[in-house]
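User: Can you recover a sequence for this backbone? Please restate the input before giving your answer.

Assistant: Of course. Working from this structure:
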């Protein structure tokens, strides 16, 4: 039902915001199986709006690499989100590849 869908979205949004605060990542996002943002949290969450398709560039591994969104690039790690044995999406933890990231990496 629409009410259940809304409750699910609110619950997931709350949890990704909580995880972003705990990890200090630029963004923590739940993506659907097509790689579209379902919910996001963190300082860069506005750059990962609901419905946005995230292009993930991975080098030899499907769970880390560079994610490309219209506003820039992010280094990410991800894990599948499972319900039973069914993959329903992925959880992505990402940091913006901007000047602040370059300074931290020195």
């Amino acid at each position: 039902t629409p009410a259940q869908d809304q409750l699910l979205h609110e619950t997931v949004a709350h949890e990704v915001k909580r995880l972003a605060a705990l990890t200090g990542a630029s963004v923590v996002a739940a993506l659907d199986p097509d790689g579209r943002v379902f919910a996001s949290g963190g300082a860069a969450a506005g750059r990962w709006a609901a419905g946005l398709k995230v292009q993930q560039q991975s080098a030899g591994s499907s769970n880390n690499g560079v994610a490309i969104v219209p506003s820039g690039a992010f280094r990410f790690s991800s894990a599948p989100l499972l319900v039973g044995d069914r993959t329903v999406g992925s959880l992505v933890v990402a940091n913006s590849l901007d000047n602040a990231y370059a300074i931290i990496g020195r």
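That completes the design. The helical segments are 2-23, 99-104.
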